[in-house]
Amino acid sequence: MKKNKIKIGVCGLGTVGSGVINLLSNNKEEIEKRSGFEISVTCVSAAKKDKKRDCDIKNYKFYSDPLKMVQDEDLDILVELIGGETVAKELVTAALNKKIHVVTANKALIALHGNKISETSEKNTCDVYYEASVAGAVPIIRVVRESLNGNDIKWIAGIINGTTNYILTEMLKSKKDFDIVLKEAQDLGYAEADPTFDVGGIDAAHKLTILSSICFGIPLDFDSIYVEGIENIELDDLNYAKELGYAIKHLAIGRKNNDGIELRVHSCLIPEKRLIANVDGVKNAVVVSSDAAGPTLYYGAGAGSLATASSVVSDIIDVSRKINSNSNNTIPLLSYQNKELVNKNILNINDIVSRYYLRIRVTNKPGVLADITKIFGSKSISIESILQKEDVDSDKNVPIVLVTHEVLEKNIVEALSSIEKLDVVKDKIVKIRIEELES
To answer: Which of 413, 420, 408 is nearest to 380 (CA)?
Structure first.
């Protein structure tokens, strides 16, 4: 017999949790029209019951201990919005072992413990949905797991951290340096008091771990991701990139090639004509390139109470439909059947091939460029274009901006190490990879 009411418990009543409560309440009638059944929050859990919140929880049974809530309540779906790893992992595992389906927005939980959670999900024939863990309201997980599941995905590239995208956008727009814009982002609530996870690339790496698994059929492996943040991007580089016809964006990239899979998070120069190069502010965007569909772009709000809640509630509805159909078939957590997930060669960053933007500060005297190009020639590095800029601060040192043809990363690193030892070279050389993002 079909169930007319789906009982859910919400653990975590912060920004997203409050958004979920409000969205389920405000759109209750619309949800029932679309689904044909009632989704009812019966209980909630948070550290403190009387804390001031943006949602009304007075009609729900309250638990300060989320594990006790799972043990005591007869739930159909647990919504985990606590965040972190330890309690969340224990909570999700307990729910699955009690045959309770799980919806979560916890990227770190899936990225770091998803392999084990997938096994527990399969063993208990219970689903785990996690759309909100990557790119907020942008339904990229669903697109890969369902809409593109008949495609061979070749590469994926995304702006999947709104904080870094906001900072890079505002630096160029306002002509302010990184530290100033970061402080402004913190004041506006776009960056945390400790912004390390965002500006250092860790948040994006968690999300790429998930995307690479569902795109390429590999087990989750956060440690295999190469990570750089945006801390070393300077306003000069944003300006020079624009002059060359590029935008600088912080990208998460996964790409298959003949030697293995590239998994990397770092800043890139992207041609301004690409749609993703024009994604500004706190927005997220992901391009997926596959054999049948070609490159497709998904764009929208990457964070925020209702934006993220939108993905959570969508997952709740999908799981509810499955419960209502009495189906015992689970959708694989990582798109592929667990037994089909295979470890593949993840390329070391030194083994990738790319074009490069280089900014070298040198003493302004004859022969400097010849010395630099001689070292490049010894490593089979050819130069595509050169910009030599006047220095407004000094007539002794000038910046030279170079764009290379494709070259092995190992070779460019070795060449730059030799160039930095030249007496005429001042400061550390700025190196940013160039991504064309062509099909």
So the answer is: 408
CA distance 143 to 131: 10
Active site residues: 207
350-434 has CATH 1.10.3720.10 classification: no
* Distance of alpha carbon 129 from alpha carbon 336, whole angstroms: 14
Element (H, E) at 241: helix 235-243
Alpha helices by DSSP H, listed for 50-190, are: 66-72, 86-97, 107-123, 140-142, 162-174, 178-188
DSSP E strands, 375-424 = 383-388, 397-404, 407-408
Note the CATH number of domain 140-300. 3.30.360.10
Distance CA 105, CA 301 (A): 15
Q: Which of 337, 378, 376 is nearest to 360 (CA)?
A: 376
Cβ atoms of 192 and 317 within 8 Å: the answer is no
The rounded Cα 212 to chain-centroid distance in angstroms is 11
Task: Tell me which amino acid residue 251 is.
Answer: L
Whether 1 shows a pLDDT value over 50: the answer reads: no
Domain positions in the chain are 5-136+305-340, 140-300, 350-434
Distances (CA, A) of 313 to 28, 78, 309, 320, 329: 11, 12, 6, 10, 21
Residue type, 361: R
Residue position matching structure tokens 């500060």: 361
* Helices and strands of the chain, counted as H and E runs: 14, 17
Q: Locate tokens 């017999």: which residue? A: 1
pLDDT per position as a tens digit, 333-392: 999 999 999 999 999 999 999 999 999 999 988 899 999 999 999 999 999 999 887 765
Contact 274, 359 (CB under 8 A): no
What the block records as the tokens of 425 is 């070279």
